[in-house]
Q: What sequence folds into this?
């Protein structure tokens, strides 16, 4: 479990606007070799292997939401490299992962936050992606976060959001599901929703499906991230100057982390 001192350390980071990592101490604009849009497990693996020149930006406040916020896949997979084995060992030590090859999805985001701080990863959360412009020295990306306007210049931009910035990859989505947790014996219920569904439509579809299935028990929580299936695998698309590689295409946590670290 996350220790109290780690939680307090993260609280201090949060007070600074959910922005942490040594790169932010430099004068603006920040320069990085690789910028990741989306704090996916894939992005986390890449940044863990190259912390000095990588920046992760996300519009939410959750790490690896394709696992931690989707209430869906919770398979660990195999750890091949020393870095991924270290990541897996720490998950097991903190009892977030288990010997049966599964892990506790909601606790993953707290663990990943502590991991990121201890590894000196450069992260900006709760920031909207406003613009990406090609300059002579790379790509200038503008974000609007708790501290106002943020400018990050990068050689490469990798978008790991599920449907892509401005929905550039929405046409590759084959299937989309939304999960909810109920206070009952079997716990959860997952409903298929239209691939193009927004959150309002998806939530209505979830509850209608639950009623049709005769789901009983008090609703405890709804997932805040969809479970995705794509038309092809692996999924990667170059759109202008941005590489779209959705983190949600992976169904095993360590596989996603490993693939990112090896990119």
A:
């Amino acid at each position: 479990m996350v220790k109290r001192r780690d939680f307090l350390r993260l609280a201090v980071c949060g007070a600074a606007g959910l922005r942490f990592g040594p790169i932010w101490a430099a004068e603006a604009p920040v320069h990085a070799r690789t910028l990741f849009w989306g704090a996916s497990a894939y992005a986390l693996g890449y940044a863990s292997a190259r912390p000095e020149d990588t920046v992760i930006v996300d519009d939410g406040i959750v790490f690896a939401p394709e696992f931690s916020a989707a209430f869906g896949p919770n398979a660990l997979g195999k750890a091949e490299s020393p870095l991924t084995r270290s990541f897996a060992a720490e998950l097991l030590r903190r009892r977030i992962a288990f010997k049966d090859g599964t892990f506790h999805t909601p606790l993953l985001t707290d663990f990943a936050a502590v991991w990121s701080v201890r590894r000196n990863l450069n992260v900006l959360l709760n920031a909207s992606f406003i613009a990406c412009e090609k300059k002579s020295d790379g790509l200038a990306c503008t974000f609007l976060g708790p501290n106002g306007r943020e400018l990050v210049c990068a050689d490469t931009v990798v978008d790991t959001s599920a449907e892509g910035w401005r929905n550039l990859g929405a046409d590759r989505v084959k299937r989309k599901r939304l999960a909810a947790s109920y206070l009952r014996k079997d716990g959860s219920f997952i409903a298929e929703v239209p691939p193009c569904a927004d959150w309002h439509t998806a939530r209505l579809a979830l509850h209608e499906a639950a009623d049709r299935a005769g789901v009983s028990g008090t609703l405890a929580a709804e997932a805040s991230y969809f479970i995705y299936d794509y038309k092809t695998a692996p999924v990667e698309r170059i759109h202008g100057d941005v590489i779209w590689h959705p983190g949600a295409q992976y169904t095993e946590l360590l596989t996603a982390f490993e693939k990112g670290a090896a990119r």
